[in-house]
Amino acid sequence: MRIYDIILKKRNGFALTKDEINYFVHEYTKGNIPDYQAASLLMAIYFQTMNKEETANLTEAMMNSGDVLDLSRIHGIKVDKHSTGGVGDTTTLIVAPLVASCNVPVAKMSGRGLGHTGGTIDKLESIKGFHVELTNEQFIENVNQHKIAVIGQSANLAPADKKLYALRDVTATVDNLSLIASSIMSKKLAAGSNAIILDVKVGSGAFMKDLDSGIALAQEMVDIGHHMGRETVAILTSMEQPLGYAIGNSLEIEEAIQTLHGNGPEDLTELSTTIASYMVLLAKEAVDIDAARERVMKQLQSGEALNKFREFIEAQGGDPSVTIDASLLPKAAYTMEVLAPEDGFIQSIKTDDIGVAALVLGAGRENKDSQIDLAAGIIMKRKVGDHILKGEPYATLYTNKKDMMKKAQDIILNAISLTNVPVEKPKLIKAIVMKDHVTIM
């Protein structure tokens, strides 16, 4: 078999066989196929596209290029969740203990953030003593005993995807549905869960800018999941503005705790409970989605989900008293309010720009070697559709970089548009995509 023949075949619009796809992924991962030939095949795939069988085979090949977790010793049906990104996406911190308190095992492998803020792992490390370096034995034992554990992502999880994504990033072949879907799903499938809930973001702060493209991506990923024998559901959600109010690591931990106390932002609570309800349903802990939601809300309102969060923190070496004393979280040396320049209704928020402002303050990483500031970030004070008076705060900035505050302020002022007429608040949950049907909300 020759990579030249595979490139030529796809360039001419023919479907690749499973053996051809396996050969490409295996040999490229090993370094036996040069970047220039791999880039040629990616460009051929970009223009000629892949059918569903090819996409599933590419996903499986990337999944099998490295470690595949065996979670069979964990009791019960394991359900994983994945978000396609966004600004202020704190859901895992709420969903994981909420679902675990419903007797659903949560065996979560998460990465560190590269971008606006840290990843789930960075956020959890805002809690004094919390550690993610568990052995496989400790990981499995924690889930069996506490129903929840979160560890850092293995460096050898789907290494083919890591290598191919780096090449796609510099060859203008990122935005292809098959390549996006296989990239996301190869890692989720390698993480070993029995079922998967996907939170697919749509809007100005997301990769998929409109509902139609979001549904297309969701359907692609749901099809891959079912092809691989994993029940998969996608929830399409708005990223026209930051989710919740907090953007930044310790700030998001505090907001997650507030939400588990029952005092969180309306949108963050709505999304977290919806994701949790579908996870409970897929774990067969409820007969239908209404029963699942009823159970989830009971666990939230009773405080059982918050108790599970405390138990989880303590099991991984952290100080659980952070759930009642937010002053134990890292605090920034400097704060500043960003004030509205005039009266009006908030017409739009450039979500990506708010993320950039958080990055400027130190909340994220520009590259993998950047140092993250766990105390830095932004608390938004208004949402799209809210009315604001001149001099009232759009947001509060938190940082240890005093010299960056003016830059972050200017970014936020330019990111928010006002109008003098009322604005309808955007709908958070836009659609549910399942194997056999799509429900537009």
TrEMBL record:
GO BP annotations, alphabetical order: pyrimidine nucleobase metabolic process; pyrimidine nucleoside metabolic process
Gene Ontology molecular function terms on file: 1,4-alpha-oligoglucan phosphorylase activity; thymidine phosphorylase activity
GO cellular component: cytosol
Domain of life from the UniProt record: Bacteria
PROSITE patterns: THYMID_PHOSPHORYLASE
EC number: 2.4.2.2
SMART domains according to UniProt: PYNP_C (SM00941)
Pyrimidine nucleoside phosphorylase C-terminal domain boundaries: 345-419
Keywords: Glycosyltransferase, Transferase
Catalytic activity: uridine + phosphate = alpha-D-ribose 1-phosphate + uracil; thymidine + phosphate = 2-deoxy-alpha-D-ribose 1-phosphate + thymine; 2'-deoxyuridine + phosphate = 2-deoxy-alpha-D-ribose 1-phosphate + uracil
Transmembrane portions of the chain: none
Stored InterPro entries: Glycosyl_Trfase_fam3, Glycosyl_Trfase_fam3_N_dom, Glycosyl_Trfase_fam3_N_dom_sf, Nuc_phospho_transferase, PYNP-like_C_sf, PYNP_C, Pyrmidine_PPas_bac/euk, Pyrmidine_PPase_CS
EC main group: transferase
Subunit structure: Homodimer.
Family the UniProt entry places it in: Belongs to the thymidine/pyrimidine-nucleoside phosphorylase family.
Function text: Catalyzes phosphorolysis of the pyrimidine nucleosides uridine, thymidine and 2'-deoxyuridine with the formation of the corresponding pyrimidine base and ribose-1-phosphate.
Protein's name according to its UniProt entry: Pyrimidine-nucleoside phosphorylase
